[in-house]
C-alpha cells in the first residue's frame, strides 16, 4: 500500500512527487574535443545520457538510427519504390536529408531504392504562409528527387509536379463535422487514404512517414481514447500495411526523439516551415490535449514518454481470422470491430437512452430500447467503431 498520506502534501507542495528529469533541450557546446573521435571541434553536441560529440559523429549516430530501423526488420527490399512525405515539419526535413544522404553514398553504403517526395497541401485559407517557395528550395537542394504536390481532399488524378502546381479552393468535408476532435480524426484518415492512392498512382510500394517517438507516444494515447484500440499497434509500429493496394507505410524515425531532431536541424541548417497542428494546441480537442500532455511529459520526464512509446511495441495488432475473410473499415482500412460485443452494445444503449428521452419514460419498454441499441450497432457495418463516431458528428453529407 502507498505510505504517502494527505499530510505529506503541505505548504511545500508534493514533497514526494516525481521530480523532473533531464530536459529535451540538450546542450550545444561552443568548442572542445569530441569524446568519440578525439578531434577538436568548434561545436559539440551534448545529448542527454551521451558524451559530447562533434558535428560529424553526431550525424553518424543519428543516421545510424535511421538505417538500423530499416535494416533490423528488413522492411525495405532492394530497389524499392519509395514515396517520402514532407509536410514542412522538422522531422520530415530530417527524414528527407537522411534519405538523400543514404542515396548519395558509395555502392557499399548506399540505400538501394528510388524515392519521390510528396507534399499534401492542407491550407484552409489563402492567408496562410505559402509553402511552395520553401518546397522549391528543397527541390533544388535535394536533386534529383522528384517533388509532387496534391491538395488534401482532391482526387488523385489532380496530382502535379511541384513546378506545375497551383492551389485551388476545394469543398472540405471536415467543415461539416461538429467537433474539432472528429474533424482532426477525419482529416488524419482522409490523409492516409490519399497517401495510399498517390502511392499507387506513382507505382510506389513503400511510404516513409516522418513520425518520431514523442509523436507516436501521443498517437498511441489518442488512438486508445478515440476507440481505435484494436488498431493502435499499427498506428505506432515501424510497419503499417493498411494502405490500399498492398502499399506499406514505414516509420524509420520512430527511435529518434525531439532533442535529436532539433540537433540534426541545427547541424544541417534545415528550415522547417510547417505551422499547422502545433499552432492549434490552444483549441480544445482530444488530439491537441493529448499532444500537449505528452509534450509536457517530454520536457519534464523524458523517460516516461519513452515508456509510453515502447508500450506500443508490445501490443499485437488485432487481425480477422483468415477463414472469415478480409473485413476492413471503409474509411480507415483497419479491421472491423463492429461485431456485437457487450462494450459496444453498452455504448449504443446509453446513446439510445439519450435519444429517446421522455418517450422512454412514457413507453417504459426496455425491449424496444435494447432493440434500438442493437440496430444502431448494426447500422453502418462498413465502418469501425471510431469511424462511426466521426459519422455521428457529421451534420450533412457523407464521409466517403
Which terms would index this structure?
400 residues; alpha/beta; Rossmann fold; 2 domains; 3-stranded antiparallel β-sheet; 14 strands; 40% helix; globular; disordered N terminus
Could you please describe the fold and organization of this structure?
The chain is α/β, with parallel strands linked by helices and 400 residues long. The chain folds into 2 domains: 58-312, HUPs (Rossmann fold), CATH 3.40.50.620; 322-392, no CATH class. 40% of the residues lie in helices and 12% in strands. The chain is built from 13 helices and 14 strands. The protein has helices at 55-72, 90-103, 132-141, 180-201, 213-225, 232-236, 258-268, 286-300, 302-313, 342-356, 358-363, 366-378, 385-392, and strands spanning 9-10, 13-14, 27-29, 32-33, 40-41, 44-46, 53-54, 80-85, 113-121, 146-151, 160-161, 206-208, 239-240, 248-250. The strands form 4 sheets. A 7-stranded mixed sheet has the order 11-10-9-8-12-14-13, with helices on both faces. It has a 3-stranded antiparallel sheet with strand order 3-6-7. Helix 2 (90-103) crosses helix 7 (258-268), helix 5 packs across helix 8 and helix 10 packs across helix 12 (366-378). The N and C termini lie far apart (52 Å). The relative contact order is 0.12. Residues 1-24 have low confidence and may be disordered. This is Cytoplasmic tRNA 2-thiolation protein 2. Pathway: tRNA modification; 5-methoxycarbonylmethyl-2-thiouridine-tRNA biosynthesis. Pfam families: CTU2. InterPro entries: CTU2 (IPR019407), Rossmann-like_a/b/a_fold (IPR014729).
